[in-house]
């Protein structure tokens, strides 16, 4: 069975101001990334372009949901 993971990020005190504002207005998550079975991930950050690259997500501030 194929799966995809949604990785939801919780803002931290030292994060970019936009993340902290989003966390105040609509907590607890401020960002989501998609990770595929092959370890490739995709997302977009403020002021940057869409990426598609390998990611490990070792940061403990991500909540991970796996979808079939």
Structure, explained:
The chain starts with a strand and ends with a strand. The model has no long low-confidence stretch (mean pLDDT 93). It has a 5-stranded antiparallel β-sheet with strand order 4-3-2-1-5. With 68 residues, it is mainly beta. It has 1 helix and 5 strands.
Helical proportion, percent range? 10-25%
Spatial sequence of strands, sheet with the most strands? 4-3-2-1-5
Q: Uncertain segments of ≥5 residues (pLDDT<50)?
A: none
Span between N and C termini?
A: 7 Å
Number of helices: 1
User: Major sheet, described briefly?
Assistant: 5 strands, antiparallel
User: Total strand count, please?
Assistant: 5
- How large a portion of the residues is in β-strands, by DSSP E? 35-45%
Shape: globular
* Helix-strand sequence: EHEEEE
User: Which structural class best describes the helix and strand composition?
Assistant: mainly beta
Compute the gyration radius: what is it? Answer: 13 Å
Q: Indicate the mean pLDDT.
A: 93
